[in-house]
């Protein structure tokens, strides 16, 4: 762990160097006293090394926004100052630090450590990009599932009206053979449609993977129109409307 000579080198330093977090130790004025290996490595990889990896410079000043107003920078500076002045023992925030290679996210943790006659601040930056990406993937899966279930719930309701209408026809038909035959055909089609949708609902794993498969096949347009009219007939009858369909 690099230091400016005022801090004793102890066995703690190689332990801190072994951590994955980018760590710096500040004095009570916010001046960087020491940094660990992960801090140096990140600085080298991102051309932030500067003079001696910032040791001897004021970290709070370095966090100030350079142009315009940065909400993340302002929040970080405010949190650092709160810990520096003893208004809080610890501060933590998550922030983006994107690069040309891709988006990155970090968690900043600032902790005040008090020793006899002095106080130090430990600043640690931990890369949480993998966690953020995993969370976003879960949110995307959840959105796809919600969208699919909402669509399925709507589609499951559609066959119920024709089936209910058919039951009324059967009850009023007085056993008329042709009416019953037509009613049975409608119920068979609508129940088959519901069975297919329930099969889709049961296959939740495909929804989670975003691999809902569409079965593409040629169908007669007249058949589609007939099914649409069949589904809408109960609503048309309830409103005392009349629908006329002319097919070529």
- The CATH class assignment of the largest domain is Alpha Beta
Portion in beta strands:
15-25%
How far is the N terminus from the C terminus? 84 Å
- What is the residue-averaged pLDDT? 80
Structural class designation: alpha+beta
Q: In total, how many beta strands?
A: 6
Strand order of the largest sheet: 1-3-2-6-5-4
Per CATH, the superfamily of the largest domain is: PAS domain
How many strands, which pairing sense, and closed or not: the largest β-sheet?
Answer: 6 strands, antiparallel
- The rough form would be described as rod-shaped
As an assembly, this protein is single chain
Binned, the helix content reads 40-55%
DSSP helical segment count: 9
- Secondary-structure element string: EHEEHHHEEEHHHHH
Rg, Å, rounded:
34 Å
Detailed description of the structure:
With 248 residues, this protein is an alpha+beta fold. It has two domains: 2-127, 2-Layer Sandwich (Beta-Lactamase), CATH 3.30.450; 132-238, Orthogonal Bundle (Helix Hairpins), CATH 1.10.287.130. The protein contains nine helices and six strands; from the N terminus they run βαββαααβββααααα. A six-stranded antiparallel β-sheet has the order 1-3-2-6-5-4, sandwiched between helices. The longest helix is centred in the middle third of the chain and has 29 residues, at 129-157. The mean pLDDT is 80.
């Amino acid at each position: 762990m690099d230091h400016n000579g005022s801090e004793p080198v102890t066995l703690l330093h190689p332990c801190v160097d072994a951590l994955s977090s980018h760590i710096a130790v500040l004095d009570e004025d916010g001046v960087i006293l020491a940094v660990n290996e992960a801090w140096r490595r990140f600085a080298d990889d991102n051309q932030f090394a500067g003079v001696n990896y910032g040791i001897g410079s004021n970290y709070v000043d370095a966090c100030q926004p350079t142009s315009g107003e940065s909400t993340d920078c302002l929040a970080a500076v405010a949190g650092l100052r709160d810990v520096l002045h003893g208004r809080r023992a610890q501060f933590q925030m998550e922030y983006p630090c994107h690069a040309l290679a891709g988006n990155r996210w970090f968690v900043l943790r600032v902790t005040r450590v008090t020793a006899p006659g002095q106080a130090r601040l430990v600043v640690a930056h931990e890369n949480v990009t993998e966690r953020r990406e995993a969370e976003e993937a879960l949110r995307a899966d959840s959105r796809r599932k919600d969208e699919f279930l909402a669509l399925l719930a709507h589609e499951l309701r559609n066959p119920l009206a024709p089936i209910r209408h058919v039951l009324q026809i059967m009850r009023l038909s007085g056993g008329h053979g042709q009416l019953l035959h037509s009613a049975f055909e409608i119920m068979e089609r609508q129940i088959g449609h519901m069975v297919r949708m329930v099969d889709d609902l049961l296959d939740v794993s495909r929804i989670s993977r975003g691999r809902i498969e569409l079965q593409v096949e040629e169908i007669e347009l007249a058949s589609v129109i007939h099914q649409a009219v069949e589904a809408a007939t109960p609503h048309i009858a309830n409103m005392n409307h009349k629908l006329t369909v002319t097919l070529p």
